[in-house]
Amino acid sequence: MNETRAPQASSPSRSQWAEIWHQFKMHRGALLGAIIFVLIIGTVFIGPLLWTIDATYIDIRARNQSPGWTHPFGTDQLGRDTLARMMVGGQTSIAVGLTAMLLALSLGSVIGVLAGFFRRLDGPLMRLTDLFLSLPLLPLLLVMVLLFRESLSSIFGPESGIFILIVVAIGITSWMPTARIVRGDVLALKEREFVLAARSIGTTNLGLISRHILPNVLSPIMVSATLGIANAIITESALSFLGLGFPPDFPTWGRLLIDATVYLQDYPERVFWPGLAISLTVLSVNYLGDGLRDALDPRIRGR
Length: 303
What we know:
mainly alpha, about 70% helix
């Protein structure tokens, strides 16, 4: 008597994360952007452990030096090492970008999901979004910094107070695009068959949102996250460039840029280094967002 055996698959099917990684690495710009962004983060956070020159050390005898073996990026008008200040400034700029992005992403996702899922909240929340979109953001940021700078600095200290102020100011003025994108996707998703089926078997609203809605809006949220990092870094650099960011002795890429503009004609490399760091970070994050959008979208993965 012959035994019948169940047919075995010739090769195991790839998991969802393997499919996402396969789609992501097919996007060469995104892969290059991810490598550059990881290198920048590794340089600014691990570099100071290897390059041990203090970023605040003043050596008047070594001021205004050109790039060389002792100081690869040269020195500033006070003899401080530019490479060390670039790494310390990068830590602050990237930390501001990531923290402000998380705040804006959280606010935008919550408001977008509530507006798209609950019909009675759609009108008020979207009018609130339109109100924030109509505000001139840079003047609003300047007013917020001028109003709360001294009080927060006295409570948390000069550096921590300004960090909290800039993160909150950027976060609460940058959530609107995320909210509108998430709302549009939720409006389309809540009429899909799998959501209607889950509702018909008695799934609560919280269960619908957490199990069926949020996992399907990860793609626009991730894209908004990457764009939010770039926007926060540029905004912090603009505030520092206007002299309303961190204290003058606390380096950020924007602060290094404004300090270098005074010596632009004599020492143009001082403008080049922070400008290059900001540009590379923003471009790499934008390409990374494009790749994540394609990799997380199941319609594109299925092609």
